[in-house]
Task: inverse folding
């Protein structure tokens, strides 16, 4: 099952399998070199967990994205940064861009603050690395009571935590996603993506906090990650191909089932 060609959604609950069709060298496709650093603190971010840092984050992203010198790195130092919904958009002038999250990025716990279907969106980027060992805390606990998708077929899903749209040659590794309103991560129309060493955590009672939802994307490898959610660990929607999932631990209870819808 190295290729997953979909006309129907496939839900992966726990797959201790090794697939080899996606090159392990994905991490090498973002070239080396000393990047120019763009620190969100220098753009006005205040790491107190209260003041909205959205403008500072977006300004830092724009400066890094359009840096003409080649490599660029956006750095979120240790601390707690409140972030309302934000879009980090390309295409970028930089040949490659790194987002290094060392601290905690905290979302709003108010549904009314989310006009779109996601909290943090990376869009139209070729060459992206998101890493740093930090945490994206979606503050979803107060919003889960508004999720009625179990009984309402016309429900409006709550916002996904991290969304990647039209991203090519991307790596997301060694980052924690905690308590999103909806999905932890969503990939749409992406290609050549490696997700590695991730920790996605939400209580088993949290509704529809799926780990990773992959839609219309190709060559996506999820590996060496722990996913404990209130929904599916990984779901692969129609139009997606070549989605290997080696060494992924799914919870909150360890399940050893494979379900195809």
Result:
């Amino acid at each position: 099952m190295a290729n997953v060609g979909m006309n129907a959604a496939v839900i992966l609950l726990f797959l201790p399998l090794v697939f080899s069709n996606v090159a392990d060298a994905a991490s090498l496709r973002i070239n080396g070199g000393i990047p120019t650093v763009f620190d969100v603190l220098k753009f006005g971010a205040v790491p107190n967990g209260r003041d909205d840092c959205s403008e500072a984050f977006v300004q830092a992203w724009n400066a890094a994205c359009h840096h003409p010198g080649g490599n660029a790195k956006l750095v979120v130092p240790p601390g707690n940064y409140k972030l309302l919904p934000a879009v980090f958009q390309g295409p970028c002038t930089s040949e490659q861009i790194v987002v290094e999250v060392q601290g905690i990025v905290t979302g709003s716990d108010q549904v009314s603050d989310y006009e779109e279907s996601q909290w943090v969106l990376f869009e139209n980027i070729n060459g992206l690395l998101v890493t740093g060992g930090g945490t994206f805390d979606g503050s979803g606990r107060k919003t889960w009571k508004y999720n009625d998708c179990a009984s309402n077929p016309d429900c409006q899903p709550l916002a996904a935590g991290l969304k990647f749209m039209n991203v090519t040659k991307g790596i997301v590794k060694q980052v924690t996603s905690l308590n999103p309103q909806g999905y932890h991560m969503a990939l749409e129309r992406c290609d050549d993506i490696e997700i590695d060493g991730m920790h996605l955590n939400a209580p088993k009672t949290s509704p529809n906090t799926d780990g990773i939802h992959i839609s219309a994307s190709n060559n996506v490898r999820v590996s060496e990650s722990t996913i404990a959610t209130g929904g599916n660990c990984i779901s692969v929607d129609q139009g997606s191909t070549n989605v290997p999932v080696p060494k992924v631990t799914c919870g909150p209870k360890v399940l050893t089932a494979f379900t195809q819808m």
Observations:
- Residues 1-30, 253-261 have pLDDT under 50 and may be disordered.
- Residues 41 and 58 are 12 Å apart (CA to CA).
